[in-house]
């Protein structure tokens, strides 16, 4: 089914306008799938896989579809195969990473509520079911980084849904950390802590020793310039490895660590998950 002429013209006009602003664009067919921009792949005969190294089902000499086909070249956009595509296109898409942008795709109300609590405010664009939060700066893309949340930047495309509302914020560590995977916790054999000879006091209860350890852990978290999520987990693991087997840690110490982590953008839930995973890894 073809689109009305005015819609087809509007898609082409939008694509040319974005390209003139340095934003690589491509047309989308119904169902949000991309068109090819060469005759061999125009009807998605190759399955829609971008050919970056002359491999896979596509035998074209260069990138011809998907995010890899996104372009700012007006000749490609309004001539060649794409000249006939706009009458079938259902939307305009763009390559966020190619435009120096990261899109946090929030797919439902719960994901939006999480973002408002955990992420810095930035430009937002309403979508059919949720919102796109746009940050200035590219990063690796990843799907399902948490329930209802995808990251679209390099090697990905997103529908163009308008300019949005608000000022675009620089890409924060809290978003980069979403793609950092914690090690899968494994439960080792239970560790038996031998009784101290003569019933002496635990050496970890020395206030100076413990306070110095907690202060160093806070400093490690505060100094993290990137991969905050992974840094928090490693720091929690180190603290528990040193101080977690003798009962010297108190809620006050743990709260100090959680406060330092949340000051770097971690949510309370992420702190709790990292602490639990560290306990499990150490068999505590």
Summed up, what is this model?
Helices cover 35% and strands 13% of the residues.
Low-confidence region ranges: 51-56, 186-201
What overall form do the CA principal axes indicate?
Answer: elongated
Helix content class? 25-40%
Q: How many β strands by DSSP?
A: 9
Oligomeric state, counting identical vs distinct chains: single chain
Q: End-to-end span in angstroms?
A: 62 Å
Structural class: alpha+beta
Give me the Rg, rounded: 25 Å
Beta fraction: 5-15%
Run of helices and strands? HEHHEEHEEEEEEHHHHH
Number of helices: 9
Main sheet properties: 6 strands, mixed
Task: Draw up the topology in text.
Blueprint: H1 5-20, E1 25-28, H2 74-78, H3 82-85, E2 91-94, E3 101-106, H4 109-118, E4 123-126, E5 131-136, E6 142-146, E7 149-152, E8 158-159, E9 169-170, H5 173-176, H6 207-222, H7 228-243, H8 251-263, H9 268-282
Helix pairs in contact: 6-7, 6-8, 7-9
Please provide a written account of the structure.
With 284 residues, the protein is of the alpha+beta class. It is built from nine helices and nine strands. The protein has helices spanning 5-20, 74-78, 82-85, 109-118, 173-176, 207-222, 228-243, 251-263, 268-282, and strands at residues 25-28, 91-94, 101-106, 123-126, 131-136, 142-146, 149-152, 158-159, 169-170. A hairpin with a 2-residue loop joins strand 6 (142-146) and strand 7 (149-152). 35% of the residues are buried. Mean pLDDT is 80; it is low at 51-56 and 186-201.
């Amino acid at each position: 089914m073809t689109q009305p002429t005015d819609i087809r013209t509007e898609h082409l006009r939008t694509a040319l306008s974005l390209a003139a602003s340095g934003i690589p664009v491509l047309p989308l067919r119904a169902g949000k799938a991309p068109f090819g921009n060469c005759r061999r792949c125009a009807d998605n005969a190759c399955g829609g896989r971008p050919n970056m190294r002359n491999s896979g089902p596509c035998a074209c000499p260069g990138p011809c579809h998907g995010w890899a086909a996104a372009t700012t070249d007006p000749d490609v956009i309004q001539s060649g195969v794409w000249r006939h595509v706009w009458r079938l296109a259902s939307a305009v898409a763009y390559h966020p990473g190619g435009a120096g942008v990261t899109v946090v795709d929030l797919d439902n109300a719960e994901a939006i509520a999480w973002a408002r609590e955990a992420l810095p405010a930035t430009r937002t664009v309403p979508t059919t079911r949720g919102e796109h939060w746009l940050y200035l700066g590219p990063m690796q893309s990843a799907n399902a980084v948490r329930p209802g949340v995808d990251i679209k930047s390099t090697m990905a495309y997103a529908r163009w849904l308008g300019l949005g509302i608000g000022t675009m914020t620089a890409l924060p560590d809290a978003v980069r950390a979403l793609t950092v995977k914690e090690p899968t916790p494994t439960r080792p054999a239970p560790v038996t802590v031998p009784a101290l000879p003569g019933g002496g006091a635990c050496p970890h209860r020395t206030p100076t020793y413990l306070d110095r350890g907690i202060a160093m852990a806070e400093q490690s978290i505060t100094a993290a310039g990137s991969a905050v999520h992974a840094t928090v987990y490693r720091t929690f693991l180190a603290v528990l490895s040193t101080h977690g087997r003798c009962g010297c840690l108190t809620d006050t110490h743990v709260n100090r660590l959680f406060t330092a982590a949340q000051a770097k953008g971690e949510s309370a839930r992420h702190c709790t998950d990292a602490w639990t995973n560290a306990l499990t890894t150490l068999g505590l």
